[in-house]
């Protein structure tokens, strides 16, 4: 069995330009957003209290920060226009549990969203600015190897896990 060990390295690309342009000066870590479901509280006769039940296919706002070591024209070109479409492309280093052999598998995260904040950071001698851009996501898809493991499009109502429409049983009633 293959054991996923860690992300060996990754790059971020601006998907809005005709040929994906590598964003230069991106920090070494991007925290992916949580998939936190919206909940509805139910209570009533026969229930000894209340229950916060997840609403299938409905998610709270998803935000992501993209850190940059320094302000550059590349960063500001990316910010212009109010929306972003980015691809995080990495290589997962894995190990075989019986032989210890190392293998590599691609990990791709596609995100789209509205730019909610540009933080220019700080100015300090001999240091980067630690600037960042914040996005309110409308779309995210995570692919491992050749398999789409999760895909959410908040503008079209698409929600898939391992290629299966997780919202299908509800959509047939609407």
How far apart lie the N and C ends? Answer: 42 Å
Which residues sit in consecutive blocks of at least 5 with pLDDT less than 50? none
Coarse morphology = globular
Task: Let me know the average pLDDT.
Answer: 90
**Biggest sheet, open or closed, and with what strands and sense?**
9 strands, antiparallel
List the total number of helices. 2
- Counted beta strands: 11
Query: What class do helices, strands and sheet pairing give?
Result: mainly beta
> How much strand?
over 45%
Give the tally of structural domains.
1
Rg, Å, rounded: 20 Å
Oligomer: single chain
Give the helices and strands as they follow along the chain: EEEEEHEEEEEEH
- Residue share in helices? under 10%
What does this structure look like?
By secondary structure, this protein is mainly β. It has one domain. It contains two helices and eleven strands. The strands form two sheets. Strands 1, 2, 5, 6, 7, 8, 9, 10 and 11 form a nine-stranded antiparallel beta sheet that branches. A two-stranded antiparallel ribbon has the order 3-4. It is globular and about 65 Å long. The termini are far apart.
